[in-house]
Amino acid sequence: MIRRAVVLASLLSACVAPATTPPSRVPTETPTVGVQTGAATASPAASPLTTPVYQNAAEGYRLELPRPWRRSCNSTESQLYPASTIVSQQIFVAASERDERWGSGYPFDGVIVLVVPNPEKLPVEQWAAQGGLGFAQTPEAPVTRATLDGRPAVAAAYEGIRGEQRQDIAVTSGDRAYVVTYYLTSTDQTNVPAMKAIVGSFHLLTESERASTPTAAPLTPRSPESVADALAAGFAKKDVTALAEQLGSCVLQGSYGSDASIAPAVAYAEELRRDLAAGLAVSVSPRPLLEYGGDSRYVRSSWTRPGKTAEEVDLLLRANGDRWYWAGAVIR
């Protein structure tokens, strides 16, 4: 049997995986980091002069995103991890959707907000001393007292596991802990002011602020069978618009037994449009729907490019609640 788990592992490795067993540590006595609360209100569409705001009512925070910074498609909720491990991980980047592509490391600078359980409702220093998940992920990282959003916090600066330079700051609130990180992938400091501003704007929402946040319209349920049928019809007609309607926010590409990459749906659809225009022919077998593992399924397809041998490609389907979507293409 083909090792499909390898591709799922590659997908997860592209995300910023929190450390699972960090050592205990206690912050030093001298406070070295202090950041301020973000603006009370702002709207992404209010004015060209207004700094857009990312607000996550479900996880209880917001932060400002100066243009061109935006939420990456390589963000995740708990469905990619055990529910007891993380709650949410959002990544913010300055790269455009068309330029964003993730592999096994960090292709560009970014800001991460990691939300993890704090079931014992520990104060932040005690939480960190007990090995706070996702915070100060190397044993030698010095931990200092800090403030974030006017709250007691702990901070750490260190080199990450892939050579990136990380600056973490963490707070706790009730049964959640929040680790806000910015990281540099090179010695280029160009993005540091913007990243510090994003971290400094982090704000934990009050109950009234949560309640006043507009709620997104519920997604229309969609079965895996309907997605498979739409892919078969879309490829038969070379209808990229119809195919793009089946995509999730991020698309996995790779082959079994090798590294995978993920890119925003916009970039993948453009690539698909170019390939189809250049003569790519895809034949999809919408049945049977095959088990991929977890909440995933796949259907088989054959991709033929002019002058080349046909490739057998598994089309990965995943679910967001009761709405299924096309999540990737994996070469056998």
Report the sheet-strand fraction: 35-45%
CATH class of the largest domain: Alpha Beta
> What portion of residues is helical?
10-25%
Radius of gyration, whole Å: 21 Å
Tell me the structural class. Answer: alpha+beta
Largest sheet: 9 strands, mixed
Predict the CATH topology of the largest domain. Protein Transport Mog1p, Chain A
Number of helices: 7
Globally, the shape reads elongated
CATH architectural type of the largest domain: 3-Layer(aba) Sandwich
Write out the CATH superfamily name of the largest domain. Mog1/PsbP, alpha/beta/alpha sandwich
Quickly count the domains.
2
Q: Low-confidence parts, pLDDT < 50 over ≥5 residues?
A: 1-46, 78-84
Number of strands: 18
Rounded to the nearest angstrom, the distance between the terminal CA atoms is 11 Å
Average pLDDT over all residues: 85
* H/E series: HEEEEEEEHEEEEHEHHHEEHEEEE
Question: Summed up, what is this model?
Answer:
The chain is built from seven helices and 18 strands. With 332 residues, it is an alpha+beta fold. The strands form three sheets. Strands 1, 4, 5, 6, 7, 8, 9, 10 and 11 form a nine-stranded mixed β-sheet that branches.
How would you describe what is shown here?
The protein is of the alpha+beta class and about 325 residues long. It has 2 domains: about 180 residues, 3-Layer(aba) Sandwich (Protein Transport Mog1p, Chain A); about 110 residues, Nuclear Transport Factor 2, Chain: A, CATH 3.10.450. The protein is built from 7 helices and 18 strands. The strands form 3 sheets. Strands 1, 4, 5, 6, 7, 8, 9, 10 and 11 form a 9-stranded mixed sheet that branches. The protein has a 6-stranded mixed sheet with strand order 14-13-18-17-16-15, with helices on both faces. A 3-stranded antiparallel sheet has the order 2-3-12. A hairpin with a 5-residue loop joins strand 13 and strand 14. The radius of gyration is 21 Å and the shape is elongated. The chain starts with a helix and ends with a strand. The N terminus is likely disordered.
